[in-house]
Write a structure and sequence with these properties.
With 454 residues, the chain is α+β, with helices and mostly antiparallel strands. Helices cover 29% and strands 22% of the residues. The chain has 15 helices and 21 strands. The structure holds flavin-adenine dinucleotide. Flavin-adenine dinucleotide binds next to strand 3, helix 3 and strand 10. Keywords: FAD, Flavoprotein.
C-alpha cells in the first residue's frame, strides 16, 4: 500500500509506504518486522515529521476502527485507537457526554491524541488528553499486547502518553468522557488593546471559565501592537446534544500555485477579524463546532499556503518571562517580514499529565503559522527557538519539522528515558533527526533490533 500520508504542514510531499494494520499486527505478533522500522499513522494532523517514517512504513490505523462499548454511568468508552474524535463526539453526544479535552480539530484519531497527549482550551482545568485515559492495549515487537494503566506496566503507560508513537502501537483504549449540560457553548469575547492587558486578564479568565484562548493580531504595530481578543466559554445549560456534523460547505479544491496567506491578505484579515470580534462582548451561544473547530469547516484549508506548505511554531514560555519574551517573539516575526495566519496565545495550568514526554508545562503557549518561504522562514524559526530556550521554555515536537537536536534536548531532557522504552522496531523521522542525532548511545535499541533481524 502506498499513499501520501501527508502531515498537516505539507513541507515534504512524496509517496510513503503504508501497511495494512492487520498485516502489521500479524508481523508484530510473530516478531517479524522490517528493519527500517514502523510507525503508526493516525490522521496526519501533526504538522511535521513526527508522524512520518520515510525509510520504513506507516501503519494506517483508521482502517476498520470502531467503538466497542460505552458505559453512561461511568462515562468510559472503549474504542479502537483509529476512531476519530469526530466519530466519538457524535457517538457520545446523545448520552450527554463530550470529549474531556479536544484540540483545535476533531479530525484526529484517539491513538494520535494519546501519542501526542494533546491539549485544548481547558488545559488549566482538565490537563491533557492523557489525564483521562484509563487504560490502553499496546502491541510491541516482542509480539505481546501490554495492558497499560497507571499501575499495570506503569512505565509503558507513562512513556506512551506523549511518546509520539515510539513505544509501539496503541490498539484500543478506555477513555473517560465528561458529562456536559449541552454541546453548545456560552461564549464571551473580551478585546484587549495590547499584550499587557491580556496577561492581566488571563489568570482570572482561567479561574472563571472552562475554556479560554486568545487570538492575537501579530501584524499590528504602533498603538495597535499586541491587540487581540480573549475568547472564554462554558458548556451552556440548554440541553442541546445534537452533534450533527455540519456539512463541509467550503473546500479548497486544489493546491494554489502560491500562498494566498501573505502580509497583505493577512493584514486585511487580521483587522477585519479583530473589528468584528471586539463587538461580540455580550455572552452568546455558540455551536460547539464553531467554538472548538472553526477551521474544520473549510476542507483542505492548509492548501491556502500553496505548494511549499507551512511551518507551525508552538512554544511554551514560563510565566515569569512571558510578558517580555512573547511580545519580542511577535516583533521578531514581523521584523523578519513574516505574517502568521493563526496567532494563538493560551495559558497552561498546573494539572500534571501522566505522560513522560507530554508537551504542556505551566506558562504561556504561543502558536504561529508561517507560509514556507525557504531559508528566511528557517532563520526566523531558529531565532524563535533560541528565544524559547533562553527563556527556559520548550518547542512542541509534534508541530515541528526542523528544530535542532540541541533545541529538542534543551526542552525535553527526559527524551533519554523515552529512548530506553522505545520499541526497537518503531521510529519516526522526527526521532531520527533529533534524539538519534544526539548520541551514539541513543541509537542502541535500533541497532540492536537491526542486528537481531539481519
Ligand atoms: C487545525 C489543527 C488544530 C490543532 N490544534 C491542536 C491543539 O489545540 N492542541 C494540540 O495539542 N494539538 C493540536 N493539533 C495537533 C493535533 O491535535 C495532533 O497532532 C494530533 O495528535 C494528531 O492526531 P492524528 O490522529 O492525526 O495523528 P498523526 O498526526 O497521524 O500521528 C500523531 C502521532 O501519533 C502516533 N500515533 C497515531 N496513532 C497511533 C497509535 N494507534 N498507536 C501509537 N501511536 C500512534 C503517530 O505515530 C504520531 O507520532 C492541531 C492540528 C490541526 C491540524
Amino acid at each position: 500500500m502506498s499513499g501520501t500520508f501527508e502531515s498537516f504542514g505539507r513541507i515534504r510531499r512524496h509517496k510513503r509506504r503504508g501497511v495494512d494494520p492487520n498485516s502489521a499486527m500479524e508481523a508484530l505478533r510473530v516478531g517479524r518486522c522490517e528493519p527500517a522500522g514502523l510507525l503508526a499513522f493516525g490522521n496526519g494532523r501533526s504538522y511535521g515529521d513526527s508522524c512520518h517514517n520515510d525509510a520504513g512504513s506507516l501503519i494506517a490505523m483508521q482502517r476498520g476502527a470502531q467503538i466497542h462499548a460505552f458505559d453512561p454511568t461511568t462515562g468510559i468508552v472503549d474504542a479502537d485507537a483509529g476512531v476519530t474524535l469526530a466519530e466519538l463526539i457524535e457517538y457520545a453526544a446523545p448520552y450527554g457526554f463530550f470529549a474531556p479535552v479536544t484540540p483545535g480539530t476533531r479530525f484526529v484519531t484517539l491513538g494520535g491524541a494519546v501519542a501526542n497527549d494533546v491539549h485544548g482550551k481547558n488545559h488549566h482545568k482538565r490537563g491533557t488528553f492523557g489525564c483521562h485515559v484509563e487504560s490502553f492495549e499496546l502491541l510491541r515487537s516482542d509480539g505481546k499486547t501490554h495492558h497499560c494503566t497507571v499501575t499495570q506496566n506503569p512505565h509503558l503507560y507513562a512513556a506512551t502518553i506523549g511518546g509520539m508513537g515510539l513505544t509501539g502501537v496503541i490498539l484500543r483504549l478506555r477513555l473517560k468522557l465528561t458529562k456536559v449540560s449541552s454541546l453548545d457553548i456560552e461564549q464571551r469575547v473580551t478585546p484587549f488593546a495590547n499584550l499587557s492587558e491580556y496577561f492581566d486578564l488571563a489568570e482570572a479568565a482561567d479561574e472563571e471559565n472552562e475554556f479560554a484562548v486568545a487570538w492575537v493580531d501579530q501584524l499590528a504595530t504602533g498603538r495597535f501592537e499586541g491587540r487581540g481578543v480573549l475568547m472564554t466559554g462554558n458548556h451552556a445549560d440548554n440541553g442541546n446534544f445534537s452533534a450533527k456534523r455540519s456539512r463541509l460547505p467550503l473546500r479548497v479544491p486544489f493546491d494554489l500555485p502560491f500562498s494566498a496567506l501573505n502580509r497583505t491578505t493577512l493584514g486585511l484579515f487580521n483587522s477585519a477579524y479583530f473589528n468584528v470580534n471586539k463587538r461580540k462582548t455580550a455572552p452568546h451561544l455558540t455551536n460547539y463546532q464553531s467554538f472548538f473547530y472553526p477551521l474544520d469547516s473549510i476542507e483542505h484549508w492548509n492548501r491556502l499556503y500553496g505548494p511549499a506548505g507551512l511551518y507551525q511554531h508552538q512554544c511554551i514560555i514560563p510565566s515569569d518571562a512571558a510578558r517580555s519574551v512573547i511580545p519580542a517573539m511577535l516583533a521578531a516575526s514581523r521584523d523578519a517580514g513574516h505574517a502568521s495566519f493563526l496567532t494563538v496565545l493560551k495559558r497552561f495550568g498546573h494539572v500534571r499529565s501522566p505522560g513522560l514526554m507530554s508537551f504542556p508545562q505551566p506558562g504561556y503557549t504561543l502558536t504561529m503559522d508561517f507560509p514556507n518561504q525557504g531559508e528566511a522562514t528557517l532563520r526566523l524559526l531558529d531565532r524563535l527557538d533560541r528565544m524559547t530556550v533562553d527563556a527556559g521554555g520548550r518547542i512542541n515536537p509534534y508541530k515541528d519539522q526542523r528544530m535542532s537536536p540541541a533545541a529538542f534536548e534543551a526542552g525535553f531532557p527526559e527524551w533519554r528515558q523515552l529512548e530506553r522504552l522505545r520499541d526497537p522496531a518503531f521510529v519516526s523521522d522526527f526521532w531520527r533527526r533529533t534524539a538519534l542525532a544526539l548520541g551514539a548511545d541513543a541509537a542502541a535499541p535500533m541497532a540492536q533490533y537491526a542486528r537481531g533481524h539481519a
